[in-house]
Amino acid sequence: MTHHNDEKQTSHEQQTMEQPQTHKKKRSGWFKPFVSGVVGGTLALGVYVLSPYAQHPLNNTANDSSTKTAAVSTNNTSDNSSKTTAVQTSNSSSSISSMVENVSPAIVGITNYQAQSQTDTSFGDFNTPFDESQQNKSSQEEKTGTGSGVIFKKSGSKAYVLTNNHVIEGANKLTVSLHDGQTIEGKLVGADPLTDLAVVEISSSHVTKVATLGNSSSLRAGETVIAIGNPLGEDLSRTVTQGIVSGVDRTVSMDTSAGESSINVIQTDAAINPGNSGGPLLTTDGKVVGITSMKISETGVEGIGFALPINDVKPIAEQLLAKGKIERPYIGISMLDLEQVPDVYQKETLGLKSSQLDQGVYVKEIAAGSPAAKAGLKSEDVITAINGKQIKTGSELRHELYTNAKVGDTVNITLIRNGKEETKRVTLTQSESKQVSS
Predict the structure, then answer these.
(1) Which ranges does the record mark as transmembrane (predicted)?
(2) Which helix (H) or strand (E) holds 108?
(3) Which terminus has fewer CB within 10 Å in the chain: N or C?
(4) Does domain 31-42+215-323 have CATH number 3.40.50.150?
């Protein structure tokens, strides 16, 4: 992984990568994606090899004429083919270059400043022993990380930038660098750790371009995509890279400040570097189809990066603009992935059969007065499905709730209690407590 002193994201990647899997009976997935600076790629240039026409001895004039005619015909066909290919390649490159020039003014850099405590010790005179009470403590804002963003809305004197939550998280101050070299102050409108999205407000006085949001549901594997961002900080601002869509509708787990989250992503083979986080993933016609967010950072793994689909981003951005936060349905349970519970406990205490082991969520605690409590859920229940959709982990449970349900909905929760399957109807409310998982 590329390291950079100014990258908050890099240190985050290292901590996530090195964090031991405590309390787990076995590994729960084939990889862990890491929130980092995001997305680059490799531009492959086609090389065309032309074979010369083979010369042979000629027996007579007729044959000579015939052969020469054939030679001219063949060579002309080859020439025309190569010229056509060259023109097509040139036109394609020119089209992408024009697109990049057009959309680049909507791409910004974001710098995160956080308060750093400093201590100034004053001894007064040499006869006075050192005393901690004599320390003068001050706080100074220092640059702790950089990322990217894309201007997606302009309204009157204000404009709005989409970026990742991990780019702005913990900031005391945000600055935004624009296409024309101006650096202006940014104001956080709202952020959502579970989807790794944030909206930042800036003055529209220097904004000349607003990006067009596309349709990520129309993406196909193999489609060319372009990423623009600030890998490794502002020194390489607005770096343009190219790749393809490696896969759509992927689901990955991500560790966030609000807990583990399971999110839908676009997979791309574009290279990922710290500082690209929050930048756009674009189609060749310049429409934003994703917000680059994470990568697989593991020895022997290359070209596995992810972007948040713009169709999933839009409603989150709209709610952040309207309310500054995301209102999610609340059950009121503290939970644990069942696979983290010893098999002997699952069998002897919870009454699970061999085929049911590790298949669900163990309820540790029920919040008093919560929807779960009112519906009759109890600690040591094992939740296995919501509205008939099987779930195996807590992140899958959250994903199902947050994606397919809303505050006020009534959902059917299938659970196993004392070895017997039951169904409870739970009416969801808005989250009120930080002490429970969901």
Answers:
(1) 34-54
(2) strand 107-121
(3) N
(4) no
Report pLDDT digits (tens) over 338-381. 999 999 999 999 999 998 999 999 999 999 999 999 999 999 99
Highest mean pLDDT of the ranges 69-78, 120-129, 179-188, 428-437: 179-188
Pairing of strands 305-309, 420-427: unpaired
- 426 with 367: CB under 8 angstroms? no
User: Do 31-42+215-323 and 107-118+137-203 share a fold?
Assistant: yes
Q: How far is CA 172 from CA 7, 113, 175, 261, in A?
A: 16, 6, 10, 25
- Is 429 buried (19+), middle (13-18) or exposed (0-12) by CB count in 10 A? middle
Domain positions in the chain are 31-42+215-323, 61-104, 107-118+137-203, 329-430
255 counts as catalytic: no
Q: Does the annotation count 196 as an active-site position?
A: yes
Per-residue DSSP letters for 9-42?
HHHHHHHHHH---TT-SS---S--EEE-S-----
| Per annotation, catalytic residue among 261, 277, 370, 437 | 277
For residue 302, the model assigns a pLDDT of 73
Burial class (CB in 10 A: 0-12, 13-18, 19+), 263: buried
- Tracing tokens 């939970």 back to the chain, one arrives at 335
| pLDDT beyond 80 at 128 | no
- Cβ atoms of 438 and 397 closer than 8 Å: yes
Would you state the CATH architecture of domain 329-430?
Roll (2.30)
277 tagged catalytic:
yes
The amino acid present at 162, given as its one-letter code, is: L
What is the tens place of the pLDDT at every residue in 234-290?
766 778 888 999 998 888 877 788 777 778 899 998 777 777 889 999 999 999 999
The one catalytic residue in 196, 255, 312, 337 is 196
- Which whole-number Å values give the CA distances from 402 to 261, 313, 326, 398, 407, in the listed order? 10, 13, 10, 6, 9
Catalytic one of 4, 166, 179, 399: 166
Burial of 316 (0-12, 13-18, 19+ CB in 10 A): buried
Instruction: Report d(CA 222, CA 81) in Å as an integer.
Output: 25
